[in-house]
Write a structure and sequence with these properties.
The complex is a heterotrimer of chains A (326), B (437) and C (279). Chain B has 17 helices and eleven strands. Chain B is of the alpha/beta class and 437 residues long. The chains are: A mainly alpha (326), B alpha/beta (437), C mainly alpha (279).
């Protein structure tokens, strides 16, 4: 799900210096940890790392329909695919840049709103009240529903002539004049953000609920004795205590949302409307629809580099923040 | 600190796996006859549902097995998946022995080299090139190469018109020019009814109509050597005319911009729209409960009353081709199967069941294809239909231009102006997404 | 904490709105699945005009839903079991041993979560095909290939969460087991695993949900016989009509097992996150 190992210094660091176990036989002991890790390592190599290396190789090739039968024979183009992708004054580069900016906007909105809703729900359900357990269950439903089942339902709700959204907005609340489109045209961006927030805020809620359980009650009691009201307690104790959780959570949500393919694909089908042409769909189109896999691979590599840069930057920045706190 | 030993192991593992997959040259290589008793056949969705297709094909495949002893494993694949499945089969070399392809993809798939070319020897084995209608043969691959597939079912576009709604509006006969169509459309529009239903969210339909109107305006979407030219003034005029049914003439419901699952067919069947341009819609209309005498079928209109020459095009050569996968391990059996499916008897049975026109000339005389609608569609196919460009980038043309039109419909539906400039910009963008542009 | 009326009212309003937001699609699934086809093709209404259970009968015939269901179940269950096993071993290694390359391993495994799926879809496909050609082990088009793919999707998070969980289990426990004569693996199985059940359950739930919901790889890596629900559900759209009532019924039917399982086990998930991940 994320790159969080380096975010949270491995909890071992917080424990007293660990002494490694003393295995009975030395020779076996040296190999044992590697043996334990081997299956995981092999699987990750097979499914992620080696394919990624091949993907990078492909990005330097002119892999069009003429060569898909035998990709090794595709001619090398050097940086050709990359040059086309980043020439922002030509249509391919322009489209990629447009898609990238849309994705940035989409991710920022979705992560921000998901975090906001998750935080609100976690704080408001922190104290016991009647029906709290039930409500927690309800909040987790969007997270538990299979993506395709949920998003296909949303696409039904967003239909112009027989969907729930227009029925509520226009027929019942009279907020919209006429029946707007949600799955084509400009509004498709709003539709995508809505579905994405709906899917991810429960995860934020789940993590933050877990985080709240680690806050010692005494902190609240002490603050109450100092005369702090409930809102002040939220501001002075709860939110600062959630900082480490938030640090991980925001990164996770960011990577998830930025790479999300399932939501737009099920919502809009193979060709997303221009206003919701997020990067994952754009790259899918550039490779699987136009059969230009080399160019698609180059765009994926650029995307990966961007995510790497943001992640490392984020980790460095937040780690410094944490050190300053400590 | 990366551990040196660990790094070495990782490199070794990488090298090992990479060498296992360096280029697929060895994959299957060329096919042969290693498995002469079975065939896998991918059929496209021709009937009202996938189950419908299985029902029609099952007895025919059983007959083939009785005759040849070859068992055919059938998989019916829906249109949204078919091209991707063919692509996956092409890349992996693991696919069916025989497959249906949309005839417009012939040249694109021909370029991959995944299909067995029907060289003169192979064509003779299935009875010779002359058995097929020339129009259908024109859509089997690039003109200067052996066909990549042979025609199986032929289809053409027709203008379906609702007799009752026309009568009520006092219109005696279907329009023959676009000016008439828009005038009639205006009279038929009102009170929740619309003149013309369009499948605006369906890129393939959009691309087909762009092609037909394009030919009427004199637009070729590709140069002779296969380079895309999507944004010529003629192409812009054609696409604008199509989108204007909704944007300017307002004879098409704005809601049609979202249609991609045959809702326009349903609107026509239920009388919400008075006209529809579709390929062989009879069986689907029947499935929607519209009796055959409730509508008529006319040729798609032309720009002028006496259109002639190269702009006298009112349909694309639509249809399904049958291809043999090059990697087939039962090539002889596959060719036998193609011969069987294109035999006169099977052509009659299958085309009658699917409401299409047999591309095999001998089969066309059957009374099943002499109904007024099919006669119209047959004449269109013979005299007014042009094949889509038989160039490698054709399937990309359909997705890119079709999607651009989908976005233009979205603009029109939202009330944003659709101008020559906006159409040209959309088409230019589509063109430049092609690597060969 | 003393709750002011303002706080209580804020809570009521916000939580009600959130619950409505969360459940709206579920309500649409339920109510639409009980409507006849004509009604779902018409303007939306909150309540069915005429109740029918037909969609729940028809879904099994329109597409081979039961077949897809079994495929999804096999794929998700197998990848869960393998993923949890592999993750337990790896997490134990990382949590209890100090060795060279430990940090490299964690960083590498976790960073794979950053990869856009679209980048390695085609290469992975090619690798599976080539392995099949070289060894005769069919991975492309088989359930095995999907199991392999999905389990690596959940593996990094599972390892990370279990490392956190194992770290919270006092080391003295396994030391005691070691002095009792167990080997390190004995200590893992007899002491650490039983103590980490909530974490392991949480990881299992996560792995199952990941496999149950994946669309992209399933759409390329499966064929008629191995198709999973994620792809199969789209079959309702390639009919004469889009049977929205059946789509909704099918969506509900395929969701019930995961949602029910998830809600039953959610307290483990919170416990697992509390102890492990969210430190």
């Amino acid at each position: 799900m994320t790159v969080t190992a380096s975010t949270t210094p491995p909890p071992a660091a917080e424990l007293p210096a660990t002494t490694s176990l003393r295995p009975r036989r030395r020779s076996r002991g040296a190999a044992l940890p590697y043996l334990l890790l081997l299956p995981a390592l092999l699987l990750e190599l097979l499914v992620h790392l080696v394919p990624m290396v091949i993907g990078v190789v492909m990005s330097f090739k002119e892999l069009t329909q003429f060569f898909v039968r035998d990709w090794g024979s595709a001619p090398w183009t050097g940086l050709g695919n990359y040059r086309v992708a980043v020439r922002f004054d030509a249509p391919v580069g322009q489209a990629l840049l447009h898609s990238f900016l849309i994705t940035c906007g989409f991710t920022a909105l979705s992560v921000g709103l998901s975090w906001l809703l998750g935080t609100a729900a976690a704080i408001l359900t922190q104290q016991g009240f009647r029906g709290r357990a039930l409500l927690r269950g309800v909040f987790l439903v969007p997270y538990a529903l299979p993506v395709y089942a949920a998003v296909i339902t949303w696409s039904f709700m967003f239909q112009r002539d027989n969907g729930l959204v227009n029925h509520v907005l226009h027929d019942q609340l009279r907020l919209a004049s006429g029946h707007p489109f949600w799955l084509i045209g400009g509004n498709s961006f709003a539709a995508l953000v809505t579905v994405s927030v709906w899917r991810s805020w429960p995860f934020a809620f789940l993590c933050l609920t877990a985080g709240l359980q680690n806050i010692p009650r005494e902190l609240y009691e002490a603050a109450a004795m100092d005369g702090a009201g409930i809102w002040q307690q939220v501001r002075r104790i709860t939110l600062p205590s959630l900082r480490p959780v938030n640090q991980v959570l925001v990164l996770v949500l960011f990577l998830w949302t930025f790479n999300d393919f399932n939501t737009p694909y099920v919502l809009f089908g193979k060709s997303a409307p221009a206003a919701a042409d997020v990067i994952s769909i754009h790259i899918y189109q550039s490779s699987f629809i136009t059969w230009n896999f080399g160019s698609g691979a180059a765009m994926s590599v650029l995307l990966l580099l961007f995510l790497l840069l943001v992640t490392v930057g984020y980790l460095v920045a937040t780690a410094r923040g944490r050190d300053a706190d400590a | 600190m990366p551990n040196r030993r660990g790094l070495a192991a990782l490199t070794a593992a990488l090298a090992l796996t990479a060498s296992a997959c360096g280029g697929g040259a060895a994959i299957g290589g060329d096919g042969g006859n290693a498995h002469p008793r079975t065939l896998t056949y991918w059929a496209s969705n021709q009937g009202a549902s996938l189950a419908d297709d299985r029902r029609v094909l099952a007895p025919e495949l059983a007959r083939f097995q009785r005759r040849t002893g070859i068992k055919v494993k059938l998989e019916v694949i829906g249109w949204p998946d078919l091209l991707n499945r063919v692509l996956a089969a092409t890349i992996s070399g693991q696919g069916p022995d025989v497959l249906n392809i949309g005839n417009t993809w012939s040249a694109s798939l021909q370029a991959t080299g995944a299909l067995l070319p029907f060289d003169p020897r192979l064509l003779t084995a299935i009875g010779g090139r002359n058995r097929f209608a020339p129009a259908a043969l024109a859509a089997t691959g690039a003109a200067d190469r052996d066909p990549a597939a042979v025609p199986l079912y032929s289809l053409s576009y027709g203008l379906y018109w609702n007799r009752a709604l026309f009568r009520r509006a006092g219109i005696p006969r279907p329009p023959t020019t676009w000016a008439e169509l828009t005038a009639d459309g205006r009279r038929l529009t009102g009170g929740g009814h619309y003149g013309l239903a369009i499948e605006g969210g369906n890129y393939a339909e959009n691309a087909h109509h762009a092609f037909i109107l394009g030919r009427q305006h004199g637009a070729d979407f590709f140069t002779a050597d296969g380079r895309p030219r999507f944004n010529t003034p003629q192409a812009v005029a054609a696409v604008k005319q199509y989108v204007d049914f909704m944007a300017k003439d307002r004879i098409t419901a704005p809601g049609d911009a979202e249609y991609a699952a045959q809702q326009s067919l349903q609107d026509f069947a239920t009388g919400r729209a008075a006209m529809l341009m579709w390929q062989s819609a009879a069986s689907s209309l029947k499935a929607h409960g519209m009796p055959g005498d409730a509508y008529g079928v006319a040729p798609i209109p032309f720009q002028t009353a006496n259109a002639s020459g190269p702009t006298r095009v009112d349909s694309m050569v639509a249809g399904i081709n049958l291809a043999v996968f090059r990697n087939s391990q039962n090539r002889d059996g596959a060719v036998k199967f193609v011969r069987f499916m294109t035999s006169t008897a099977e052509q009659k049975t299958l085309n009658a069941a699917f409401g299409s026109i047999p591309p095999v000339k001998d089969a066309q005389d059957d009374p099943a294809f002499a109904t007024p609608d099919l006669t119209t569609l047959r004449q269109v196919l013979a005299h007014g239909a042009a094949p889509l460009p038989q160039v490698p980038d054709e399937s990309q043309f359909e997705t890119l231009v079709g999607t651009a039109i989908k976005d233009l419909f979205a603009d029109a539906a939202a009330g944003r102006p659709v101008t020559d400039a906006s159409v040209r910009a959309a088409l230019t963008k589509a063109q430049q997404q092609l690597p060969t542009s | 904490m003393r709750e002011t009326p303002g706080f209580v009212w804020t809570r009521r309003i916000v939580l009600t709105a959130l619950a409505a937001f969360a459940l709206a699609p579920v309500y649409v699934m339920l109510s639409s699945s009980l409507k006849p086809l004509a009604e779902v093709q018409d303007a939306f209404h909150w309540l069915p005009g005429r109740l029918t259970l037909r969609p729940y009968v028809d879904i099994w015939h329109t597409v081979p839903l039961a077949h897809y269901f079994v495929n999804s179940l096999i794929v998700a269950a197998s990848s869960t079991v393998v993923s949890v096993l592999v993750a337990v071993f790896a997490a134990y290694g990382v949590s209890r041993f100090r060795f060279r390359g430990r940090r490299l391993f964690t960083v590498t495994v976790l960073s794979t979560q950053m990869f856009p799926g679209i980048l390695f879809l085609l290469p992975l496909f090619l690798i599976f095909v080539d392995i099949g050609n070289a060894t005769g082990v069919a991975l492309y088009g088989s359930r095995g290939g999907l199991v392999l793919t999905y389990l690596t999707f959940s593996l990094p998070f599972s390892i990370w969460m279990l490392v956190g969980y194992f770290d919270s289990i006092p080391r003295e426990l396994d030391e005691a087991a070691l002095t009792d004569g167990c080997g390190p693996l004995g200590a893992l199985l007899r002491v650490v695993v039983p103590a980490a059940v909530p974490g392991i359950v949480a990881v299992g739930v996560y792995a199952f949900m990941t496999a149950w919901g994946e669309v992209l790889f399933a759409s390329v890596m499966t064929n008629d016989t191995t198709r999973t629900l994620a792809v199969g559900l789209q079959g309702y759209a390639s009919q004469t009509d889009v049977y929205w009532n059946q789509v909704m019924a099918a969506a509900l039917v395929v969701s019930v097992p995961v949602v029910a399982g998830f809600l039953l086990l959610q307290r483990y998930l919170v416990a697992g996150l509390t102890a492990g991940a969210v430190k």
